[in-house]
Design brief:
The protein is an alpha/beta fold and 264 residues long. It has one domain (7-192, 214-246): Rossmann fold, CATH 3.40.50. 47% of the residues lie in helices and 14% in strands. It is built from nine helices and seven strands. The chain has helices at 16-27, 39-51, 66-80, 103-131, 151-171, 192-197, 201-205, 217-228, 251-260, and strands at residues 7-10, 31-36, 55-60, 85-88, 134-139, 176-183, 239-242. The protein has a seven-stranded parallel beta sheet with strand order 3-2-1-4-5-6-7, with helices on both faces. The structure holds nicotinamide-adenine-dinucleotide. Nicotinamide-adenine-dinucleotide binds next to helix 1 and strand 2.
């Protein structure tokens, strides 16, 4: 068990990647605080964890709101006495480009994707510093690494990467680590609006991926487990793409060049 006796908060854990992380962490021995802005979703994840013999606590908190985040940290401490791991996973897609997104949607998107990482980290860091151990794993995106559209979401994810790097520098001396995962396309409910417009979207995206498939929530959960565990004790400030090779280069261009230079 790689997280035995650890207490982990996972935000946005009522669906998709967050749910997979919460379930895997629980299987590895962690007591998991399962947050979601929709309490019913958090409760469903907790029931899945308990049915598998794990230990978890559901909390309904909107991580873009200060009071809700402070209350979540307080409930976690009241329930389990300490916080060893924080996974900042909650996010929403914001959709339109800068000529079409309105100001209120821009602000709301950034609050959930970026400000939440500041609020949640701020809530747990004092305890981690005092106990001289802690691991923060942020879930950003390949959208934070390069231009792929969805400007507000992508700019916020780039901010998450930089914030992670600065946390790694500032709190390393207290044995608090901060790392960030950048997933590529992962099959989760966040894609529902695009799937409704284009039911073939996943099939159309597969040719961009050197490993020949899009990702599943468990692909990200396994990376988060490693970064949260003591196996990564000397790893901090790392930006880890979990993306089937997408960020290794332009696979489509490489394949087209390969077709014209057979011996290359
Ligand atoms: N699925 C992908 O292709 C993909 C790719 C790159 C990055 N990501 C990132 O992975 C993370 C998880 O995404 P997912 O695909 O599992 O999405 P999802 O929509 O399946 O799950 C997100 C969960 O977060 C919750 N949530 C949203 N806003 C919240 C808030 N303010 N407070 C608390 N909970 C909130 C939602 O209710 C939902 O249950 C996100 O950070 C997302 O940006 C996903």
């Amino acid at each position: 068990m790689r997280l035995k006796d650890k207490v982990a908060i996972v935000t946005g854990a009522g669906s998709g990647i967050g749910q997979a992380i919460a379930e895997l962490f629980a299987r590895e021995g962690a007591r998991v605080v399962v947050d979601d802005r929709y309490g019913g979703r958090a409760q469903e994840t907790v029931e899945r964890i308990k049915a598998a013999g794990g230990e978890a606590l559901a909390i309904e908190a909107d991580v873009s709101k200060t009071e809700a985040v402070e209350a979540m940290a307080a409930q976690a401490l009241a329930g389990y006495g300490r916080i060893d791991i924080l996974v900042n996973n909650a996010a929403v897609g914001t959709g339109d480009d800068i000529l079409h997104i309105d100001e209120a949607d821009w602000d709301a998107g950034l609050a959930v994707v970026l400000k939440s990482v500041y609020l949640c980290s701020r809530a747990v860091l004092p305890g981690m510093i005092a106990q001289k151990s802690g691991a923060i794993v942020n879930i950003a995106s390949v959208n934070g690494l390069t231009g792929l559209g969805e400007e507000a979401y992508s700019a916020a994810k780039a901010g998450v990467i930089n914030l992670t790097q600065n946390m790694a520098l500032k709190y390393g001396r207290f044995n608090v680590r901060a790392n960030v995962i950048c997933p590529g396309t992962i099959q989760t409910p966040i894609w529902q609006p695009q799937l409704e417009k284009d039911p073939q979207i996943f099939e159309r995206l597969i040719p961009w991926y050197p490993l020949g498939r899009i990702g599943q929530p468990e692909d990200v959960a396994k990376a988060a487990l490693f970064l949260a565990s003591d196996e990564a004790a000397w790893i901090t400030g790392v930006t880890l793409p979990v993306d089937g090779g997408l960020m290794a280069g332009s696979y489509r261009m490489a394949r087209e060049l390969e077709a014209v230079t057979p011996e290359g």
